[in-house]
Amino acid sequence: MQVIADQKEEIAELRKHVADVEKKQQHQEDYINNKLEERDQKLIQSLRDSQETKKLLLEVQEQIATSLEEKKSWWQKLWKR
Q1: Coiled coil where (predicted)?
Q2: Exposure pattern of 29-56 as b/e (b: 16+ CB <10 Å)?
Q3: What is the pLDDT of residues 61-78, one digit of tens each?
């Protein structure tokens, strides 16, 4: 009878250990998923920022080109007189 009682106790301990391992594994999976989500959000934000910067640079380049064209036109007007 003692052997059966010892085995039942050992089975109970093993079940508790398995439950603890499963809980830790779930915690690790949640942590990894959260970190991946954070990384993805930061990457997306970085890409958006990069696109916005490129857009602003293009606008500035267009403004400079327009300004240079206007200046060129002004000089042309001056020399045509």
Answers
A1: 4-53
A2: eeeeeeeeeeeeeeeeeeeeeeeeeeee
A3: 998 888 877 666 666 666
**pTM tops 0.85, yes or no:** no
Q: Which H or E run includes 81?
A: none
Domain extent listing, the chain: 1-81
Count of positions (residues) in the chain: 81
Can you list the pairs that 30-39 forms with residues at least 24 positions away whose Cβ atoms lie under 8 Å? none
Give the span between the Cα atoms of 28 and 62, in whole angstroms. 51
pLDDT in tens, 6-32: 999 999 999 999 999 999 999 999 999
